[in-house]
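notes to self, project folder thing:

trying the whole complex as one job this time. last attempt i did each chain seperately and stitching them together was a nightmare. two parts in total, labels are on each line so i dont mix them up again. if this works i'll redo the older ones the same way
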Amino acid sequence: MRRIALLALTVLVWCIPCFADNTAVAALQRLEAAVAADPENLRAASDYRMAVIQAGAYDRSLEFFEKLVAAHPQAANAWLNFGYAYVDKIPAAGSITQVILANNALTQFSKSIEIRKSWLALFTRGNSYLYWPKVFGRAPLGVADLEEAVAIARKEEKKKGVYARSFIALGDGYWKTDQLDKAKAVWQEGLQLFPGDPQLQARLARADRAEELETYINEQLDPNKRVDTNLLPLVEAD
Amino acid sequence: MARRLALWAVLAALPGLSGAAAGAGALRFEEIGGAAGARIHHHTHKFSGKHADVLGMFTAGGASSAAADFDNDGDLDLFVVDSDAGKPHHLLRNDLVPSGKLAFNDVAAAAGVTGGNDPKSIVADALWLDADNDGHRDLLLARFGTPLLFRNQANGTFEDVSASSGLDKFGNSIAAIAFDYDNDGRLDLVLGNYFPPVNLIDLPTPHVLPDNLDDAKNGGGVTLWRNVTAPGTGKIRFSEVTEKAGLSRHTGWTLDAGHADFDNDGDQDLYLAGDYGTDRLFFNNGDGTFRDATKEAIGLDTKKGMNVDVADYDRDGWLDVYVTNITDEYMKECNMLWHNNGDGTFTDLSKETGTCNTLWGWAAKFADFDNDGWEDLFAANGLRSASRENYIPVLVEMIIRPGVDFTDVNSWPAIGDMSWSGYQKKKLFKNLGDQTFKEISAEARVDNDRDGRGVAVADFDNDGRLDFYQTNADQEALFYRNISEGTGHWIELHLVGTKSNRDAIGARVTVRAGIQTWIREVNGGNGYASQSATRLHFGLGAAGKVDSIEIRWPSGLKEKVSAPLDRITTVQEGKGT
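result (full assembly):
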């Protein structure tokens, strides 16, 4: 009897990882079903990608979104999340694979913009360009997108808090293209619209100390650090 | 780990233990290559045909040198490799004059060791080892081809014994180290192979490049050659035991290999630096086999490993490892300073110690250049210095092309006259004795911007201050003589094995002075594209006397010896000083 109990315990202990694995897989399947049912739903797709990050199931996610956009080629937000799925994998990849993933992300963001030019898509692609080292000359492309995103933000009557991000990023883009005066101006404009924003304050506090500003912005745009791609704050502010 | 660090912090606070308290003067070097007759120009192999440009780019690594006293006259000589077809190597005999002035004479032709760059082979590394334990160091040349072995005939000449040595396997070898993995008293060889074993000069297929740029598995791996020379016969023989020893499953792009007793169990373990993918750490099982401990000891990495050097940089009694990778504007990998935790695992402390960024890394060597009792670190760097045009944007266009086949030589854009991580200033890190280093290359006058490759460290003028020789790809080498003033006391030990291998490679020496302890091991070629002297140099800082010197020979014999300060002392196994 004791031997049977011991055996049962052994099986149970041995299977705990199986249960955990099965639970994670089941959760991903559930979330995938939700996204597939509503491909434009940013919240559902974001929830799914957050679960993917936790499980480290990046390739599964890429495969899922590839099928999703094939089935729904006009779903701009599906393309956007497909791009974010590439971004999610970047910190887990080697330095050269990071370049490939980042480029693939840009391709998907561009498809999203082709379908619908939203503030979110323009901000996303523009900000992504800024992560590329200067030698690749992509920062001017980022500035162009971010100028459009900021223009949208300026026109909106309701100044959503998330719009501050486009002012921050556009200033970073100007800084990366050696236009410090324009960078300062857009950060200052952002701070007037979004008083107390800590990121804008941090940049402006360093604006006259070149080395400090460089260190700070480079830390913010470090491709080895995981970028927060949770879209919920953006969706909730909508 | 935490307890060891805490103890260390307490000890470091004691007077006389930190570098600052040791009274060491400023580190200074003078470049004397021209004056000393050691300004050797290296040439990379010039390929022909439509793949010439790309293959040249991938094989621009073999500028190397090896330091040893080949003629047993008491000073250290240098062998300097060339790599282009028909170009001779250089055997720089040290004709040190009593005044201490360094003068080298190239005796390679007379010695019969100029050859190796034949129409089908490229020489990439050199290694001195006494393969037959006759008291005269023989010379191994690692090639993109089959290795060459020259037996020292003890009369200033060498005999090419490659054909009868058993070293008959083709490989694209770029690294060679010698150590006695089975502690049988004979030096064995590890050859680190970069490309898979295809002849690049007569390319049978264009698919010879890495199959993945972060996790390549189609490289040359390593080969392990057991020395089976019968004692007293003078006929050097090696037998390949890679598979038997458990090393054949490693198929990465090996750029460097290093050995040491990492787990303090008396046998030599092996660290392999892999380009385009993970490094590997193998612990010696003590029965002629190795155990791949990579996952649990250091984890799998995706970096571009270039160099393996070993030292107990923090003097905690465990040997640590320094690996260079690529850190530049476009790729921020960071080097790895593997702190040995003493439990079979290592922690990368390169960021914490300030040794993370040496740009496009190549050789990096630990050495106590100012004799303050703490091992400093010199790192060579720089890939290709040419025009102002940058190859990186061109290369990235290829990398991001959908469906590109990296293995195909035809996929890679020509580099022409473009630069790639060129004109990089070398890095000299002074060990501050508090687990951090300070970069001082400009004030020490070693901040050259050549395309560095190998670094051979040795006390060439026998003045108790370590000098070094920096080889550069397609450029002249640089010879840095150490002229630092106010350096601390030192001892230098030349170990001679009797039961152990004659070069005493693998011997560990523990020196104690008061509450201070230093350990060093004799190594057979650690560090990329270079072999430093096997004499063990100990800077003693402010210590005015040595309390004990204990040697653990590879044979297992433990022996206590004595040695006077500020002198080079020869110690024979079992006979003391």
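what i see at first glance: Confidence is low (pLDDT under 50) at residues 1-23 of chain B.
need to look closer tmrw
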